Amino acid sequence: MSAALWILPLGLIICAVASLVLPHRSSVGLRRFAIVFLAAALTTQIARIWHGFDPLSGWYFVTVAVLSIFALWYSGPYIAREAQQHQWSTRRCQSYDALLFVFIASLLAIALWTNLLWLWVAMEAATFSSVVLAALPNTTASIEAAWKYVIVTETGAMFALLGTVLALTAVGSPLFAWHALPAHLLLTTARQHWALIGAYFALVGYGAKAGLAPFHTWLPDAHSEAPAPVSGLLSAIKLAGAVVIVYRLFRILTPVVPALYLQDALIGLGLLSLLIAASSLAFQRDLKRFWAYSSIEHIGIISLGVGFGGIALIGAALHIWTHAISKTLLFHNAGTVRLLYHTSDSQYGARAILHRTPWTGALLALGSAAIVGLPPFAPFWSEWLVLAGGFHQVGDRVFVAIAAALLVVIFVAIARRVPTWLFSAGPVGMPPSAPAISEPVALILPSVALAVLVVIGGIALPLVAHPLWQHLVHQLGSVYL
Amino acid sequence: MSILGEAAAALLWLATVGIMVVKTPRSVTTFYRLQALAGAGIAVVLAVHGHRTLLWVTVGLTVIVRMALIPEIVRRGLITSRGVYSAKTPIGAGGLLMYVLVLSAAGILLGRMGMPNPTLAGLVFAAMFVSCLQLSARYEVWSMLWALLSLDTIVDVGVVMFGRAIPASVDVGFYAVSVSLALVLALVAHRIQEVHSTLDVRNLEELIG
């Protein structure tokens, strides 16, 4: 276990250094090596040769490893085409590879490490690598998005660091055991206040990292301007990682801090995120921006699940996975749309996608059906668990009713907007039956594999990873913050 | 904690208010350097009184990176943005000062909620709140960057000060990480300047995403 804590992130850091030092032609080999490396780690983890700190850590690691493999796979054809279309230099392609490896390494660290100070460092590494990745296209919009991203999330980072140190210093937890409290701890009222203030600071800080409303302003820009594989990882994994860190901190603090305050804060931010998503989704014209707002909705659902606790917490853990696979598919799909149509804006030509590019259109339809929570897709079950878990708590029923109403509004917004990209007649100025566009197999294949995972794997994963899932349910089923 | 610590914290707060209300590039750079000096002063007090000799590394890092490197990078990188920096909001500098007063009072009160050094803690919180106000009230690259760098300095002072349960070696490690991040931030701002002569994101559509 302790070796895995360092070996996995370190392996990818070595790949990052190699991609900068070795000639560009070795980039394919490096990506394949990283995929095999991650697959080996995943297999040995599922076979229980090694295990994470706790079941949640193992569960999140599986999500990170699987989605990173897809990001690396899709990056090959995506960046090759992007470089061709926008004249990327060899150096820029190498920088992309190196930064992607660092980004994945930091996400693995978030999954594996438990000390809250190291988790802060891992989150910072993820932020800075993804900020530079978002700026890599070097357009005015992408640089501006990176700027907003760094300003808002770095403010959050400051709050998160100060909050973590305040809270854990208040409860007197020694540094190298900052994943548990000393037994039989009794605090004075003043120290309890400090622990609570620290917890709120940390929630604001990591809330900004997670894109929870009202700290979400950076998210739509960063997600829409970053290269598609990066957008996928950002939305699917990094956002949820920040909530996982908050959960870890709150779990340490709840024996000494009134849990209700922390639960209510998470539920409040979750509902606000749903509200922002519900009021913004219907007006988006850009496909990537559209899914970015949807990410705010889903991180809100995860926050609600953690806040409700019990069955809803299991739902939140499952939702990390179900949202991740569906949203990665959709961001990769949006990236393909942008490459093939030279835009993902429905007003500027990304229309009639089902007719002109049938594979891309079908994947968009499938991903959309999954992400809105239609049964039998996996997000339906995880959202159902979150709502049912909340309903189980008598005091939270009003919040569940509000959340359910907002989810219906979001469902309607997505159901109304997606057909604009799929079915509307061709771009303005072109005949209604615009010509078909050739879809390169290399671009489509990773998304088709993801779609198979969305259809089958989303529901079957708890069976595939049976012991891990059972362990998770056993541990979290009775947890209330 | 000695009177020197409290004086340094007061200087930290004054410099933060200065960064928020001053209008000329030269004075904002000076105030940032003063703020770093105050941070170094608090670290010196902690090193001497707490017998944590490793904190002298923090003092050294502050002097080299915060006082020398970062102001120079920002000064060179954002040379054409200088003109847009001023208290141009409708409420003006008077309004800003009123907000500063309220936030400072809130910070000082917070420091009195059971902290071991209430005055010092209160001043650090007050400075932090003022810096946050600058971050949210101003949207020009130039002022936001200074606000964030200033917040970074204050939080680092807070972490060094409050985290006394942390071994000094780890404290210094985290300080080094944080200072490196501030350096990267200054460099990113420099990069932005290559594509934008200024970056004003105050327009509503941009803010709501």
UniProtKB/TrEMBL annotation, chain A:
Stretches assigned to the NADH:quinone oxidoreductase/Mrp antiporter transmembrane domain: 115-399
Segments traversing the membrane: 6-22, 34-53, 59-79, 99-121, 157-181, 193-212, 232-250, 262-283, 298-321, 359-378, 398-419, 440-465
Gene Ontology biological process terms from the UniProt entry: ATP synthesis coupled electron transport
An example molecular function term from Gene Ontology annotations: NADH dehydrogenase (ubiquinone) activity
Main location: membrane
Superkingdom of origin: Bacteria
Localization in the cell: Cell membrane; Membrane
One GO cellular component term noted in the UniProt record for this chain: plasma membrane
Membrane topology: Multi-pass membrane protein
The entry's keywords: Cell membrane, Membrane, Oxidoreductase, Transmembrane, Transmembrane helix
Protein name, per record: Nitroreductase family protein
Automatic annotation (TrEMBL), chain B:
UniProt KW keywords: Membrane, Transmembrane, Transmembrane helix
Transmembrane segments: 6-24, 31-48, 54-74, 95-113, 119-137, 144-166, 172-189
This protein's name: Uncharacterized protein
Organism: Sulfobacillus acidophilus
